[in-house]
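Course assignment 3, question 2. Fill in each field.
Student: A.L.
Task: Predict the tertiary structure for the chain below.
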Amino acid sequence: MSIAAKKIFDEALSLPVDARVNLIEKLLSSLSLPTQPEIDKMWAEECERRITQINKGAVKLIPGKKVFAGLRKKYER
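Answer field:
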């Protein structure tokens, strides 16, 4: 963390809780991260894509027990 960033961080910590929350919200929104509705839409689209692949027989399904057994063996747990 740069000296300037550390100074800003230290000053931010001295703010009241509601001001820190407001600052956090503004900083997060400046990152242009997807919103929850956008994330939900992307997950729904991914689910639909996978369902289509399954229905077309384009993917091989593996039982969960077999997947987890392989993982346990691989990581020896």
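Instructor remarks: The helical segments are 3-13, 17-30, 36-56, 64-75. The chain has four helices and no strands.
Grade: pending
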